[in-house]
Structure formats: structure tokens, C-alpha cells
Amino acid sequence: MNTEKELLDYIRNGGERFLPHVSIDCAVFGFHDNELKILLLKSKFLEDWALPGGHILRSEPLDVAAQRILNERTGLNDIFLKQFQSFGDPNRVSADNMNYLKEVLKVPLATDHWLLDRTISIGYYALVEFSRVNPILDYFTARYQWWDVHDLPSLVFDHALMVEKALQTVRLQLNYQPVGYNLLPEKFTMPELQKLYETMLEKPLDRRNFQKRMLGLGILERLEERKKVGPHKSPYYYRFNRKKYQEALSAGLSFGF
Amino acid sequence: MNTEKELLDYIRNGGERFLPHVSIDCAVFGFHDNELKILLLKSKFLEDWALPGGHILRSEPLDVAAQRILNERTGLNDIFLKQFQSFGDPNRVSADNMNYLKEVLKVPLATDHWLLDRTISIGYYALVEFSRVNPILDYFTARYQWWDVHDLPSLVFDHALMVEKALQTVRLQLNYQPVGYNLLPEKFTMPELQKLYETMLEKPLDRRNFQKRMLGLGILERLEERKKVGPHKSPYYYRFNRKKYQEALSAGLSFGF
DNA sequence: GCAAAAGTGTTACGCTTACACCCATGG
DNA sequence: CCATGGGTGTAAGCGTAACACTTTTGC
Q1: Tens digits of per-residue pLDDT, B198-250?
Q2: Do B76 and B157 contact (CB within 8 A), yes or no?
Q3: What are phi and psi of A101, to 5 degrees?
Q4: What angle, rounded to 10 degrees, do the helices at A159-172 and A190-201 form?
Q5: What angle do CA A34, B172, B215 make, to 5 degrees?
Q6: How far apart are CA B120 and CA B221, in angstroms?
Q7: Which of B4, B22, B69, B92 has its CA 20 to 30 A from that of B243?
């Protein structure tokens, strides 16, 4: 949807290509500056910020739709994505909230229009490597911005609830999901990994015990290279051993937090 | 839907009262004879067994819809119900699977009929007290039956997948959800409670450690009464102290399994 | 009296936590 | 040389798991 023409076609005829009454919204998490961040977009037509989302093609599986929607917006492929909950409050998107469709776009819309009828949204969360995301603007979107999850702007519809539930889910699954693997770059230091877990768990961890535990899982490889980052000893780089990580996850790995 | 007339009206005009493209299916778990059971129904019009399910009223919240659907089928109120996943494979209900609507009911249906179009189903699981369930038949349903989760019949659509995911979810949440509270009757013995956990965890537990752990949680009350069940010592009855159970859950209770 | 199941307490082990000193680097 | 942060091992304590004998009951 890069032109007004495409947008109008989407509004008028999207109901033929997409499944009405259902949508997908994605809480995209990244990690940067020792903060857990979430990617939000600002529509040209709404005051508040929103999760990236979209509709499901008529014959498209849900997981594929979520991947496609994020790929169109971030350029990323093979994103770590998990469905976490569906949101269906009948007033989650009020008629008022959709008024921009009529007013801003000057398009006459029937009350049973596919975009105005009640819509259930399926919530996905994504874990991505912060630096690899290059948001792609479309005709709908004014800009993208990463937000610290502790300091969010006002969100449209029920998206604040979605973020809250996505966060809860990620935190609960921290012990069993490859959170570090997906949120950190290829190479990272032990203090960086620890900061990630401290941020997720919202509590400080003991450096020595943390390192013992992580190395004890047998899924990390220490590199020769050290990161040079200031007036002190340089930390080693580590990377995940993909194969061993996969094996450990299959075998019921728990990080023990 | 107790008469053919009501059923026909539902098929013809249900799309006005219910939200199309979305449905709810419920995996109802009970515990009996030391087995975890699931409640399935046999439609008059299908070969295979099915989870109880239904559609969402146009302005009804999801959780309310799930409660209503189960209440209509089991007579139970205030059921412990949790949404666990939405299922949206485009072929989860094939056109062939819906042929019964045309053939058996002899109703001419357009291809864009609200019941034939692709439908996303929101999966809920319920934990109920086995003995309190009195299934209510309607015009659609031939009968209900409890099935051991290890020995299920052939299921319609993608309902086998739903049962599998529901089971996974229940097992994962065993430590944080009041599983015993909802699956057992008011009064129960310690061996019964232990059997429930052994069934859920699929492994034997030590009697003494189990009892210590459960009593240590401070949510059980021992009654004077003992259950008389055979040529051996009679076990005490216990019941949950609701108030303390709620407090413990809020405080982040974990059973430790 | 015997078979079957329930009531009960103690010990050992392992895992988790707490904790401190030395080293490298940049300014 | 000093401030900052990273690398590393050990000891104590707590929680979990292992384990056996006695009691009750029905036949």
C-alpha cells in the first residue's frame, strides 16, 4: 500500500482478498541500550501509536500471515514469532476509532463495511535483532519508533492490553524459549546476555552464578575475540551453538530463572 | 437448537446474530477413575467426534461466549475456562467436511454462505468436576461421552490438534493453575489428589514427599471424615481452603513440579 | 491372619546462593 | 595511577528426593 490508489483499493475491495472479522497484530521486541524495546508505528491518520498488524489472506495460514505482515514492514525473514492470545472485546475498536477512514480518506463506507465490522485480533509476539530491523513506510504509516516497554506512548484501540499480555507471555516463557538467541546479535558478551536477562526478569543477577549457569547449559561458545568497550578489562565475545541449542530446547532446556 | 426449525433458522440467518469467520471450541477436561478425560460429542450428521463449540454473538466478549456455549451444553456455570490458542489453517475445515450441511439437511447453500466460508477457531480449555456435568442434547447432537485423553476416537476437522495443544497447555500450567481445585470434587483424599498429579505429569510421585509438599502450601484443610474404600486403612478427606488458595495464587504459588 | 493401601519423619545429596580478589584498559 | 568493569572458585544453606515401618480394614 504505497500509493493512495492502492490504499483506496484495499479499503474498497480488501474484503475479497482478505478474511473479514479477523486481523493479526504483532508485538515486536528488540533489545538495545540495556532496555527491552517494542516497535510501534504512527499512522498518518491516528493520534496514537499502534502495533504493526494486518489482515489474513483468504487462503493463508495464520503463522504465514504474521510472517508476511512483519516482512512487509521490517524486511526481516524467518522471524521468531509466537501466537500468544486472541483479543475479541466487542468494543476493542470502537466505531469512533474507525472514523478516520471516512473523514480523512473521504471515502463513503457502509456500516457493514468489512473494515468497520467487529474484528477479532490474533496477537503474535516477535523477538528480533534490534539492529537488523529497517522499517519500511507505506502510505498508511508516518513513521516507526522503538519504545522502551517501561515508557510507552498512548496506544490505539486495545493495543496497550496486547503489549501487556505479550510481555507477560515472553517473561513466562523466558526459561523455555530462545530469548537470548533471537534478541541478541550473532556475537555478544556475557555482560550483555546478563543485562538482557536482568531486564526481562526485572531483577539483578549475580555475575558469577549467571556465567556458571549459562556456560553449564553447554549452548555457548567463547570466541577468541574480545569486545573493546572502555577503560577496563575487555569481555569475551560468545555465540550460541545453534545445534546444541536446538538439542537442548528439544530436550526440555530450562534456564532455571 | 432443539428443533429442526431452530436449526434451519440458525443455518439460514445465524450470520446476522453471530460473527462469521470465527468460532470457539472447548476442550473440557474432567478427572475420573484415575484418568484424565475429555468431553466429546457425536453429531447426528458426522462420523467423527467433536469438541463442543459454537459461534460468538455479534456483541459478545470471547470469554462470555465460551462460558455461554459450555453452559448451554453442560448446565454448568462459572466454569474455569482459559483461552489457549487460535486455529486458522485455511484447510482446517474442508469444504467436504461441511457437505453434510447440504446433503443431510437438504438446504441449498451458497458458496459464500456464512457457515461454509473459512473460519478461525479460538480454542479454550475448561477444567470441570466430572460428576457435575450433565450434558444437554440438542437437535445437532446425538450424544456426549467422556474419553480418556490417551485413547481418543477419530475427531472432526482439526480437533485432534486442538486436544493436543490443550493438553500441552494444561500440563505447562499445572504449577500455576488451580488444577486440583477445579477437577476434583469438594471433598477428596490425598491419594486421589496425588493420582491427579501423577496422571497430569505422567510419572509416579513419592507419597510422603507429595503430602508434605501439598500440606506445606497451606491451602488444604483436613476433615475429620475418612473415606471408606476397601480392605485397608481409610484415607482422610481434604478440601481446599478457597481463601488461602486464592491468596497463594495471587502471590505466585508454584506447586514445584 | 493376611493382603492391600494409608499415615508418618529423617537423612543425604545436589543445586542455588552468597561472597572477594585480581586483572585489563583508557584516560 | 586510578577508576571502572570483567574474569574466576569455594563454602554454606536450603530445598528436594530418597527411603521403611506401622496402622487400619475387609475378607
Answers
A1: 999 999 999 999 999 999 999 999 999 999 989 999 999 999 999 999 999 99
A2: no
A3: -60, -45
A4: 120
A5: 105
A6: 44
A7: B69
pLDDT in tens, A57-94: 999 999 999 999 999 999 999 999 999 999 999 999 98
Residue B244 C-alpha cell reads as: 488461602
Instruction: Pull the grid cell for residue A116.
Output: 468497520
Query: How would you classify the pairing of strands B120-127 and B80-87?
Result: antiparallel
Q: Which residues of A touch B (CB under 8 A)?
A: 19-22, 56, 58-62, 83, 85-86, 88-90, 118, 120, 122
Instruction: Spell out the alpha helix ranges (H) of B18-158.
Output: 62-74, 99-103
Tell me the one-letter amino acid at A110: A
- pLDDT for the residue numbered B107: 74
Cα–Cα distance between B41 and B135 in angstroms, integer? Answer: 9
Say yes or no: Cβ of A234 under 7 A from any atom of strand D.
yes
Cβ–Cβ below 8 Å for B22 and A20: no
d(CA A21, CA B69): 20
Domains of chain A: 4-172 (3.90.79.10), 179-250 (1.10.10.10)
Instruction: Note whether A122 contacts B120, CB cutoff 8 Å.
Output: yes
CB contact set of A120 (below 8 Å; sequence gap of 6+): A21, A22, A23, A86, A87, A88, B19, B22, B62, B120, B122
User: For residues B143 and B46, is the Cβ–Cβ distance under 8 A?
Assistant: no
Residue B95 or A136, more confident: A136
pLDDT tens for residues B108-163? 788 788 998 999 999 999 999 999 999 999 998 999 999 999 999 999 999 999 99
Q: A-chain residues within 8 Å CB-CB of B58?
A: 90, 118
Q: Which residue is nearest to nucleotide D4 (CA to C1')?
A: A232
Please judge whether A86 and B21 are an interchain contact, meaning their C-beta atoms are less than 8 angstroms apart.
no
**How far does the CA of residue A194 sit from the closest CA of chain B (Å)?**
24
Helices (H), chain A: 4-17, 62-74, 99-103, 159-172, 179-183, 190-201, 207-216, 242-250
Q: Average per-residue pLDDT in chain A?
A: 94
Alpha-helix runs per DSSP H in B81-202: 99-103, 159-172, 179-183, 190-201
Query: Which residues does chain B have within 8 Å of residue A118's beta carbon, measured at their own beta carbons?
Result: 19, 58-59
8 Å CB contact between B55 and B98: no
Q: Hey, is A135 helix, strand or coil? A: coil
Three cell numbers written together for B141: 447432537
CA atoms of B95 and B15, how far apart (whole Å): 18
Q: Quick one: closest CA in B to A173, which residue? A: B172
Closest partner residue to B22 among A21, A58, A59, by Cβ? A21
A207 CB closer than 7 A to any strand D atom: yes
